[in-house]
Design a protein that fits this description.
The chain is α/β, with parallel strands linked by helices and about 190 residues long. The protein contains 9 helices and 5 strands, in the order βαβαβαβαβααααα. Helix 3 links the parallel strand 3 and strand 4. It is elongated, with a radius of gyration of 17 Å.
């Protein structure tokens, strides 16, 4: 028996959270869920609950998806964030996806949620092979920092950074830095500039 999928719901509506839980159950996903509604509880849950995936409404009153993505990148970078919302403008949709959200699901079409979660986790599975330091190096490479800058920032030798980058490429199965950057952008480790 596999362990349950840890799902963190960033959702201020109890009814909507229940709708999402019911859909995950209906889809046959074994889940352990936790609901939070603000920045402080979200940060704590990222550390203590260690979610496999975050499902976020984008219309929270005092905390937005971009802020959530920044915290997620900092604390739990391998977990995808999928937006589950009632409505969103085209401009907001693009902004959220560029900021690193994996997918956007309307609550009226919540049946797509299980497939979206499965796809996001499959895409990120290679990240599980990386150490936290290797993920840090990957993010900095993807942000365009040179090896010497990364070494200085992380207080490592240039050779150590080169070794980390080489090991990251090997573990992710990519052969060049361009592919490495594409992967980092695709999984939301870095955002696309607007």
């Amino acid at each position: 028996m596999s362990k349950p999928l840890r799902v963190l719901l960033l959702e201020d509506s109890e009814a909507d959270a229940e709708l999402i839980k019911q859909e995950l159950d209906r889809a046959g996903l074994t889940t352990l869920t936790r609901r939070v509604a603000g920045a402080d509880s979200f940060r704590s849950a990222l550390r203590e609950f260690a979610p496999d995936v975050v499902l976020s409404d984008c219309s929270l009153e005092h905390f937005n998806v971009r802020e959530a993505l920044e915290l997620l990148r900092e604390v739990r970078p391998i977990a995808p964030l999928i937006i589950v919302t009632r409505s969103l403008t085209g401009e907001d949709s693009v902004a959220c996806l560029r900021a690193g959200a994996e997918d956007l699901i309307l609550k009226e079409n919540v049946k797509r949620l299980a497939a979206s979660i499965t796809g996001a986790l499959t895409l990120r599975r290679p990240l599980e092979k990386l150490t936290p330091r290797q993920i840090e190096v990957l993010k900095l490479v993807a942000q365009g920092h040179r090896t010497r800058e990364i070494a200085k920032r992380l207080q490592l030798s240039v050779k150590t950074v080169e070794n980390h980058r080489g090991e990251v490429m090997k573990r992710l199965g990519v052969r060049d830095v361009v592919s490495l950057v594409r992967y980092a952008v695709r999984v939301g480790l870095v955002s696309i500039a607007a």
